[in-house]
Amino acid sequence: MKNPPDTSASEDLGNDFKKALDAGWLPIREVARQTGVNAVTLRAWERRYGLIVPQRTPKGHRLFCAEHVQRILTILTWLNRGVAVSQVKQLLDTPQGLTDPVGNDWLVLRQTLLQAVTQLAERTLDDTVNQAMALYPPRTLCEKLLMPLLAELEQRWQGQFGAQMERVFVYSWLRSKFGARIYHNNRQLRTAPLLLINHSDLPLEPYLWLMAWLISSVDCPVEVFDWPLPAGELALAVDHLQARGVVLYSSKAMNLSQLTKLLNGVRCPKMIAGSTVRIHHTELSTRTAAIADLSLAEDPLSAHQGLIQRGLI
């Protein structure tokens, strides 16, 4: 007869982890929440570059202190200045080198992606973005790589033969790519979702999907409706989903005369986002005072920040 399993060792390890947390050490999930750098990226920084070396419990759990968090924020500062992640450790360890110019990794990545688009090379596009996703936080990746790439492509497509082919290729890939990640993240979460609605007449709004991915990356469920809803049905969708908030996204002009009717009965925080905010800036600014819980954001980054400030994500 087998002896019963000895649980005392695992209980001791669990107690060690709890004692460490009580002493002020932070688990990787909490560090990810505070810094916006997900756990996968933090582990990659440790494993590949030695940028962060956390303490380990006997069971292998990573534990971080306040100094680790500050170091992560300093790393983000360098990444946002265009420094390649492979060069950051040298800058952190050599203070006298902090004022020296450093090579820009983002330009190289953007040119790789641009060439992949012109060749309709989906595997290259996907592999390059996957590698970047493993090394850079979602917000940094959007600000320094994906949004500049989309802006550069829009300029390239002005009156160019083959522009629609490239546009459909990129937008379809982007929707599939981030839609799959959002779906996977949603499956891990059980809290009320944020409802994002494509409120334009465009079949694909790429910045809508970037915004959805940014929100999803901070462990907030996201429900994306890639088509406008009529007045009445928006409130019905919010009620069915028990949504924590709703974002109407459009890069085009909106019919503002229908806005009050559209939002009637929507009893949760509301946001209008996208270039439509710039198009209708004056009138929308006035309406935010008249419609309860309505805020504005011109792009995915400001929308993401605004939702954080309002406690919705």
TrEMBL record:
Keyword list, A-Z: DNA-binding, Transcription, Transcription regulation
Secretion signal span: none
Segments passing through the bilayer: none
Gene Ontology MF, one: DNA binding
Superkingdom as given in the UniProt entry: Bacteria
Entry annotated with the keyword Transmembrane helix: no
Domain HTH merR-type: 25-94
SUPFAM superfamilies cross-referenced by the UniProt entry: Putative DNA-binding domain
Pfam families assigned to the protein according to its UniProt record, in alphabetical order: B12-binding_2, MerR_1
UniProt xrefs under InterPro entries: Cbl-bd_cap, DNA-bd_dom_put_sf, MerR-type_HTH_dom, MerR_fam, Meth_synthase_dom
Name used for this protein in its record: Helix-turn-helix-type transcriptional regulator
Species assigned in the record: Pseudomonas frederiksbergensis
High-level lineage: Bacteria, Pseudomonadati, Pseudomonadota, Gammaproteobacteria, Pseudomonadales
